[in-house]
Design goal:
The protein has about 775 residues and is mainly β. The protein is built from no helices and 59 strands.
C-alpha cells in the first residue's frame, strides 16, 4: 500500500491545440475529448457511502447494469467512500480528487459497469483513440480482462436479483486480455484505437466476459474466497477522433516572458528536436522547435517559433513605515516602468499616504505583472493612563502594575524602564510613558493595612429557652460574616449551637466562636392516679431520664431522681433547673384489683393479611396460647393464620383472661357463564351468576351499560362480562352471544335398507345445534338396528 503522498504521475494535457494551433482543424491529428466529466471531478453531492443507488453522483455517469458501482471522492474521507483510503483499499487519483470503483469479477457472473453518454456521436469509418487508467484495489485479487464498449443506445441487461447483477453479454471494441492486471500501487494506462461504425453515443467500461471466460489468478496472495473476486479503480478517460492523415503541422508563433511551455497535445510518444521525449518542452531561449508525435495509430510532426522576452525587475515599495499622527508619506516610482494600479484604483507613479493601512501597487509591463505592499502605521502620543486608585497593602505582600510594552518608553520614579513594576512597601510611586510623538504620567499612594484584634465573648454561654443576647462589634474592624452567612457587625443569639464570626479586611482574616447552649423547661409526668393491691408495694417512681432536669424535690424532702412508694397516699415532685421549675403529683390507692384483659372482637381477614393483638400495656406477665398450647409471652401477638387465640395476664393481685377468633376469607373462584351461544331473532335469554354472598357487576361491553343483580336478561347479541367481588378479591368471566337467523336444515335419507342383524349409523350432518331423535336421543347421530 502506498503512503499518503500522491503518485508521481501526470496525465497529458487535454486542452489540445487551443492556444498553440492556428487554423489546423483539418490538418492536425488531435481533437477534443468526447468523454464528459472524464476524471469524475464534477458531482451533484458528496457520496455518503458505497453501494448506493442510481445514478452516480458524478453526472452524467450511471451504473451500466443497475449494479452497485461506487463513486469515491476526497470529500468523503475518512469514510468508506473516501480518497485515498476507502473500503476497497488505498489509491490517489490520476488527477483531481475522485475516481470510480468497479467489481469486475464475482461469484455468479456478478459485474459492475460505468456508463456515460458521449459529447457527440461517433462518425462512421473514423478512427478514435480510447484511453483510460485502472488500478487494482488491495482488498480483492485480479483478472486479465477489461474493456470499453461503444453503443448507439445504452446496453440492455437483465434486472438485478437480490444478490447480484449479471455481466453485459456484448463484444467491446476496446479490450485487454493479456497479462494479469495486478498493479495495486500504480495506475495502468489502457490505450487502443478502433474504427467506428457510426452513431455510437454511449461508452461503457467494465468486464464483458462471464466467469468461465474470465481468467483469475489461483495464486493470488490474498487466497481463500478472494481469488474469485476482482475490483478496479477507474479514472481519466478520453475518446479522441484521429485525423485520417497525419501531415506536417505548424504551431502558431509564441511570445513569452522568461520561459514558455510547448504543449502539442496528447500522444503515445513524443520526440523533440533536442532529443527529449516528454509530453511538453519548456524553453528559455528564442528559436524554432520541432516535435514528432506518434501513437498506436499513426504519427505527425510539426514546428513552432518561440520568442522569449527577458524578465523586467519587479515593482518595489519602501519598507513598512511608522508615522506620527498628522504626518504623511510620499512615494515616487519610475513613471516609465509600465502601468501602475494602486489598491484604490489610482494609476499615478507618485502616491501620498495620509492614513493607516496596507497599500498595494501592481506594475504591468510587457512581460509580467508584479506587486508589492507597504504597511503604514500612525502613532499617537501615549494616552493618559492610570496606575489605579490609592491603595492599601498588606505587610509582606506585593502587587505588580503591568502595561503593554508597545505603549512606548517607560520611566518609573526610581528611573527603572520596565513595562511592569512590583510594589512591596508603602510610599508614592510614579510612571512616565513616552514615544516619538509625546508622553503621559500618573502616580499612586500605597499604605500598609493594620491587623484585626477583637473578642466575641466567653467560649461558652447558656441561655434560657426564649432568651436573646445581642452582640455588637466595632464596625471599623472590617467586613463581618457570621456562621449562618449573615453580614454586619451586630448579631442576635436566639438559640443553641456554635456561634462564630469571621472579620476580614484587605489583608487579614480573624475568626472567633462561642458555644451557646439553651436550657429548656423540664417536661415530665407522674402519670394518672392508680389503684394497686397491697402486694404491689413498694412502687418505684423513676424520673432520672427527664431532660433538662438539674434538681428534684419530693414530698417529704427527698432530692433524689428516684422515689420509692411504700404505701398509699398523694405524692408530688418539683423538678427545676437554672431557668425553670415544674411540678406534678400522683394519688396511689390500695384495692383488690385483678388484671382486666380485653381482646378485640372476632376478626374476618383477607388472605395474606396480618393482625396485631394488643391489650394496652397491662402490668404483669403475659401468656398467649392457641388450642394446641402456649405460643408466646410477649406484650403483643402477630396473627398470620386463622384460629382462636387466648391471653392470660398475671400480676401480684391476680390474673385475667380473654380470647378472640380470627378467620380468613377464601379467595373467590371465577364465575362460569358457560359456553358462548346464539339466539334466534326476537329470542331472549338469562345469564345467572350462580355465586352467593358477593357483589355483582354485569357489563354489556358493546354499550357500556351495567347491572348489579345476580342475573342478567339477554335480549340480543353482544359480549357480556360479569365481575364478582367481596371484601378481599374479585373474579370475572365473559360470554359472547351471537344472533343466528338461519334455522337448522336437516336432510335425512327417505329410506334405508338394513339386513337382518345389522345396524347402521344415521348422521344429522349439522353442527352448532341441539338434537332430539324420536327415541329421546340428543346426540348428533343415532344407531339403527331395526
Amino acid at each position: 500500500m502506498l503512503g499518503s503522498q500522491r503518485l508521481p504521475f501526470k496525465i497529458g494535457q487535454q486542452t489540445i491545440l487551443q492556444a498553440l494551433l492556428v487554423g489546423c482543424a483539418t490538418s492536425c491529428c488531435f481533437a477534443q475529448n468526447l468523454v464528459p466529466n472524464p476524471s469524475f471531478e464534477e458531482y451533484t453531492e458528496c457520496p455518503f457511502g458505497i453501494n448506493q443507488g442510481e445514478p452516480l453522483q458524478c453526472i452524467p455517469w450511471v451504473k451500466g447494469n443497475g449494479g452497485t458501482t461506487d463513486y469515491l471522492n476526497v470529500c468523503n474521507s475518512p469514510l468508506n467512500a473516501g480518497v485515498p483510503t476507502n473500503y476497497w483499499g488505498y489509491q490517489w487519483p490520476v488527477s483531481g480528487d475522485a475516481y470510480v470503483g468497479l467489481k469486475s469479477r464475482d461469484l455468479d457472473d456478478d459485474r459492475e459497469y460505468a456508463l456515460a453518454p458521449l459529447n457527440a456521436p461517433l462518425l462512421a469509418d473514423s478512427t478514435y483513440l480510447v484511453t483510460f487508467y485502472i488500478s487494482t484495489a488491495e482488498e480483492y485479487c485480479y483478472i486479465k480482462t477489461i474493456g470499453a464498449l461503444f453503443t448507439i443506445d445504452p446496453p440492455d441487461y437483465e434486472p438485478c436479483n437480490e444478490e447480484d447483477c449479471g455481466f453485459l453479454d456484448y463484444s467491446p471494441q476496446i479490450e485487454v486480455n493479456g497479462e494479469f492486471l495486478d498493479d495495486y500501487e500504480n495506475w495502468v494506462r489502457i490505450s487502443r484505437c478502433f474504427v467506428a461504425e457510426g452513431g455510437e453515443r454511449y461508452i461503457t467500461i467494465g468486464n464483458f466476459r462471464n466467469n468461465e471466460e474470465t481468467v483469475y489468478d489461483p495464486d493470488c496472495a490474498l487466497g481463500g474466497d478472494y481469488i474469485y473476486f476482482a475490483y478496479y479503480y477507474l479514472d481519466s478517460m478520453s475518446v479522441i477522433k484521429l485525423q485520417s492523415s497525419f501531415d506536417q503541422f505548424i504551431l502558431d508563433e509564441a511570445m513569452a516572458c522568461g520561459s514558455y511551455e510547448i504543449d502539442p497535445g496528447p500522444a503515445e510518444n513524443y520526440l523533440w528536436s533536442d532529443g527529449t521525449t516528454n509530453p511538453t518542452l519548456t524553453v528559455t531561449e528564442s528559436g524554432t522547435y520541432y516535435i514528432t508525435l506518434s501513437n498506436e495509430c499513426a504519427f505527425s510532426y510539426g514546428e513552432i517559433d518561440v520568442t522569449i522576452i527577458p524578465d523586467a525587475p519587479p515593482v518595489a515599495l519602501p519598507n513598512d513605515t511608522l508615522l506620527c499622527s498628522g504626518e504623511s508619506l510620499e512615494i515616487s516610482l519610475d513613471p516609465d516602468a509600465g502601468i501602475y494600479e494602486w489598491n484604490d484604483q489610482s494609476s499615478n507613479s507618485d502616491y501620498t499616504i495620509t492614513e493607516e493601512g496596507m497599500y498595494i501597487v501592481t506594475l504591468t509591463d510587457d512581460c509580467d505583472m508584479t506587486s508589492d505592499t507597504i504597511n503604514v502605521s500612525f502613532l499617537d502620543p501615549p494616552a493618559q493612563f492610570s496606575l489605579g486608585e490609592d491603595t492599601l497593602i498588606c505587610d509582606g505582600d506585593a502587587f505588580t502594575i503591568s502595561f503593554d510594552p508597545s505603549l512606548g518608553v517607560f520611566e518609573w520614579q526610581d528611573q527603572s524602564d520596565d513595562a511592569f513594576y512590583t510594589i512591596e512597601d508603602d510610599g508614592t510611586y510614579s510612571l512616565t510613558i513616552s514615544n516619538m510623538c509625546g508622553e503621559a504620567s500618573d502616580e499612586i499612594e500605597v499604605e500598609f493595612v493594620q491587623p484585626i484584634v477583637f473578642n466575641l465573648g466567653p467560649d461558652q454561654m447558656t441561655l434560657c429557652d426564649g432568651e436573646e443576647v445581642e452582640i455588637e462589634l466595632d464596625p471599623a474592624l472590617g467586613d463581618f460574616l457570621w456562621h449562618d452567612d449573615i453580614e454586619g457587625n451586630s448579631y442576635t443569639i436566639t438559640g443553641e449551637g456554635l456561634v462564630s464570626v469571621t472579620v476580614s479586611n484587605a489583608c487579614y482574616t480573624e475568626t472567633d466562636e462561642m458555644l451557646v447552649s439553651v436550657l429548656y423547661q423540664p417536661e415530665f409526668t407522674l402519670g394518672p392516679d392508680i389503684t394497686v393491691c397491697s402486694g404491689q408495694f413498694p412502687i418505684t417512681l423513676n424520673l432520672s431520664d427527664v431532660e433538662h432536669a438539674q434538681s428534684w424535690e419530693w414530698t417529704g424532702g427527698s432530692t433524689q431522681s428516684i422515689y420509692l412508694v411504700t404505701g398509699p397516699g398523694t405524692f408530688s415532685v418539683t423538678i427545676s433547673n437554672d431557668c425553670f421549675a415544674m411540678s406534678d403529683e400522683i394519688v396511689i390507692s390500695v384495692g383488690d384489683v385483678d388484671p382486666v384483659v380485653t381482646l378485640p372482637d372476632d376478626q374476618l381477614l383477607c388472605p395474606g393479611q396480618m393482625f396485631v393483638l394488643d391489650v394496652g400495656g397491662l402490668m404483669g406477665s403475659y401468656q398467649w396460647a392457641t388450642s394446641t398450647g402456649s405460643v408466646s409471652d410477649a406484650d403483643t401477638f402477630l396473627v398470620t393464620e386463622p384460629g382462636t387465640y387466648y391471653l392470660t395476664v398475671t400480676n401480684v393481685c391476680g390474673s385475667g383472661s380473654d380470647s378472640v377468633t380470627i378467620n380468613y376469607v377464601q379467595a373467590l373462584s371465577p364465575p362460569d357463564l358457560g359456553a358462548d351461544f346464539s339466539l334466534c331473532p326476537g329470542e331472549t335469554g338469562v345469564l345467572y351468576a350462580n355465586v352467593d354472598d358477593v357483589l355483582y357487576l354485569w357489563t354489556d361491553v358493546s354499550t357500556g351499560s351495567t347491572s348489579g343483580a345476580d342475573s342478567l336478561i339477554i335480549i340480543g347479541p353482544g359480549t357480556y362480562a360479569l365481575q364478582i367481588s367481596d371484601a378481599c378479591s374479585t373474579a370475572s368471566d365473559t360470554i359472547v352471544i351471537i344472533s343466528n337467523a338461519n334455522p337448522p336444515d336437516v336432510d335425512l335419507p327417505d329410506t334405508l335398507d338394513l339386513c337382518q342383524g345389522d345396524s347402521i349409523v344415521v348422521e344429522a350432518g349439522i353442527t352448532g345445534v341441539q338434537y332430539l331423535w324420536e327415541d329421546g336421543t340428543q346426540l348428533s347421530s343415532v344407531i339403527v338396528n331395526a
